[in-house]
Design a protein that fits this description.
13 strands; alpha+beta; 6-stranded antiparallel β-sheet; flat
Length: about 550
């Protein structure tokens, strides 16, 4: 039997298909965005081949060395207006973005070049690249390796292969010494400075309380003297290590023929991408990816890794979840189970719903004024007077950032918890009360356990929102570069008063505040992808916990 168009529309089937199509389009858009971010971000770590070509502009020719980063079509009329002579009547010409490095020599490490201006292109095996701690990458031709400014291997006397092997061994030595220096400076000397600061604060505390006796002063001086002796010994070790790491250098030729000497202490790695096999490139790729995840940033956050930002993001979200859950659950229990259902209760619910729509920057301003200046300032006055005028908790830090985001997301937890409490059958409460349990015992042993899946739903939504927030964090604790993590080996181990790095702010800083836009662009994509992955992992963990609780109390679902 044929169904007329009017009956088909009245049946609601078109709306089902329309909704399904809308969902499919949204899914494809999300997948497309993630693929774009993944390709643009993860492709940055692949070692591209280095080209050597002649850059021909009219009658002038120059040598150019670099790797192709991007290609695009440029309007031919714009080129004619800029003075380029284009004989053919064409609409557009291809141009390439070359990463030529050597910013300390040329002033810029990216240039756009018309593809037709590149002549005699070759990928010579002797071209090499080095990653440096400063000034970005270097591209050129290796000539020699020096020790104390004296050559120990040259490509003329020993050959390219020998020079390359000597260079690799000297770089490995320099990296080992750099690691020793970093350990001494960041850990050993850091612990000594922390101990000296605690002694200073202890002395100040005793002075304020008029309890600084001669015995106490002698004990403090003895400990301070021991720290100073350790510090002096470490300084001597550092002088020896710095002298040793500055011993070796390399001599290389740039694309314009200049010969430059680069200290190996400034080199992170050196490689010949044109001679690397597919397997070598895969190993190199995963080494770079591992460095990106586990190392600290360098070169204005455009090089190195983002581990401090990953650590700060995860720790802040976990601390926020611990803080927001009890506040949200207690508020929801009071509104649902204890408060009288009247006008005041309705106004409170309206206020809670309105709080969910307040711009996040407003929460940041509130956190700065209330948590930091008022609460933190008073905490310093009461518990840390010896540290004043330098603030301890009266300054942005991890604790205040977590509390601010907990306040921002508490309406979500309240609403989700109330929904879960409303789904508990009244007969469960009455049965518990009939067996002699008090209202508090019924709530604690029956109602709350059965509503835990709804509570976890609220926590999932809170994590999803809080992990990507940036605006309030700029006021209450996040910084461009944190010298130390909020967790270390110094007592009390968890330093919630410290500032921290965050992936969201890192994306903003690298993308909009970087002095080298082209170098920062792929890192923006890679960091954004990593932030999405971390949020997904946190949410999936919460979803797994919720599903286990739902299975445990599946009677409620029936």
């Amino acid at each position: 039997m044929k169904i007329g168009l009017r009956q088909w529309v009245a049946s609601g089937s078109p709306w089902i298909w329309l909704n399904g199509a809308a969902v499919a389009v949204c899914v494809f858009m999300v997948i497309g965005i993630l693929l774009l971010i993944a390709v643009r971000g993860l492709g940055h770590f692949w070692p591209s081949d280095i080209l050597l070509a002649q850059h021909q502009i009219k009658d002038r020719s120059s040598r150019i060395i670099g790797e192709i980063v991007d290609r695009e079509q440029v309007n031919a009329q714009q080129l004619r207006d800029a003075g380029f002579v284009i004989e053919n009547q064409i609409d557009s010409l291809p141009r390439v973005l070359l990463k030529v490095g050597n910013r300390d020599v040329t002033g810029t490490d990216f240039i756009w070049v018309l593809e037709e201006q590149l002549r005699q292109i070759q990928y010579a095996p002797y071209l090499f690249a080095i990653e440096r701690r400063e000034w970005g990458n270097f591209y050129g031709i290796l000539h020699a390796v020096n020790e104390s400014s004296q050559p120990v291997a040259t490509n003329i006397d020993d050959g390219d292969a020998v020079v390359w092997q000597v260079l690799k061994s000297r770089i490995a030595r320099a990296l080992e010494i750099r690691e020793q220096i970093h350990t001494i400076e960041s850990q050993t000397i850091g612990a000594i400075n922390y101990g000296l600061e605690r002694l200073r604060l202890r002395t100040r505390e005793l002075q304020l309380e008029n309890r600084l006796t001669a015995v106490e002063s002698a004990l403090i001086d003895e400990q301070r003297h021991a720290y100073q002796e350790q510090y002096a010994d470490l300084q001597e070790q550092l002088v020896i290590l710095y002298t040793s790491v500055e011993r070796d250098s390399l001599v290389a030729e740039t694309m314009d023929g200049q010969s430059v000497e680069i200290k190996l202490s400034k080199v992170v790695r050196a490689y010949h991408p044109n001679t690397m096999s597919w397997l070598d490139k895969v190993i190199f790729y995963f080494n770079k990816l591992h460095e990106f995840i586990t190392e600290e940033p360098r070169e204005a956050n455009t090089e190195g890794g983002i581990f401090p930002a990953i650590f700060g993001t995860v720790m802040m979200v976990l601390l926020m979840s611990v803080l927001v859950t009890p506040f949200g659950v207690i508020a929801a229990v009071y509104l649902r189970e204890y408060a009288r259902q009247g006008t005041l209760n309705r106004l409170i619910r309206i206020s809670v719903n309105n709080l969910a729509g307040v711009p996040s920057i407003v929460y940041g301003v509130f956190g700065l004024g209330f948590f930091i200046y008022f609460l933190g300032g008073n905490i310093d006055q009461l518990f840390f007077p010896e540290a004043l005028p330098a603030p301890t908790f009266g300054t942005p830090g991890m604790l205040w950032a977590s509390l601010t985001l907990a306040l921002l997301t508490v309406p979500v937890v309240i609403v989700a918890t109330e929904e879960g409490l409303s789904r508990i059958p009244r007969s469960f409460r009455e049965a518990s009360l009939a067996l002699g349990a008090t209202k508090a015992e019924t709530l604690w042993r029956v109602v709350l356990p059965m509503s835990t899946p709804a509570i976890m739903t609220g926590v999932i939504l809170a994590v999803a929102r809080a992990a990507g927030e940036v605006a309030p964090l700029m006021l209450v604790g996040v910084v461009k570069l944190a010298p130390s993590l909020p967790v270390d080996g110094n007592y009390p181990f968890f330093h919630l008063d410290r500032k921290f790095m965050h992936l969201g702010f890192h994306i903003y800083d690298v993308g909009f505040q970087s002095p080298n836009v082209e170098a920062a662009r792929p890192l923006v994509y890679a960091t954004a992808l990593l932030l999405v992955v971390i949020i997904a992992l946190l949410n999936l963990s919460a979803v797994a916990i919720r599903n286990r609780l739902r299975e445990k109390y599946k009677t409620l679902e029936n």
